Amino acid sequence: MSTHSLLLAEDSPEDAQLILKALHPVIQESMVVLCTDGVEALDYLLARNAHANRNSEDLPGVALIDLKLGMENGTDLI
Q1: What is the C-alpha separation between 8 and 66, in angstroms, rounded?
Q2: Residue pLDDT, tens place only, 20-63
Q3: Under 8 Å CB-to-CB from 19, ≥6 apart: which residues?
Q4: Phi then psi for 28, rounded to 5 degrees?
Q5: Distance between CA 19 and CA 57 in Å, rounded?
Q6: Prediction pTM value
Q7: Which terminus, N or C, of the chain has the lesser number of Cβ atoms within 10 Å?
């Protein structure tokens, strides 16, 4: 079973908080991994760099990705 049910890739703290607030009735914040740019999101998904100790087979069930992320945009990430 996945530790995180949702990968949220969002570079705006305000937008991330709005999304988490909207999802609160169905998902706990502890079940969300928040990445603030596309490179960090890729690192999480590929279990590398800062996320190298994560089990690479433990993937989130859902990914919400801002298409205009910094560093690596959302469409490249998809």
Answers
A1: 8
A2: 999 988 888 889 999 999 999 999 999 999 999 988 888 899 99
A3: 8, 10, 64
A4: -80, 145
A5: 26
A6: 0.85
A7: N
Element counts in the chain: helices (H) and strands (E): 3, 3
Q: Amino acid identity, residue 54?
A: R
- Whose CA is closest to 38, among 5, 76, 7, 12? 76
Task: Sort strands 62-65 and 32-35 into parallel, antiparallel or unpaired.
Answer: unpaired
Task: Check if the beta carbon of residue 37 is closer than 8 Å to that of residue 55.
Answer: no
**Residue for token pair 């996320």:** 51
The single residue listed with the structure tokens 């801002």 is: 66
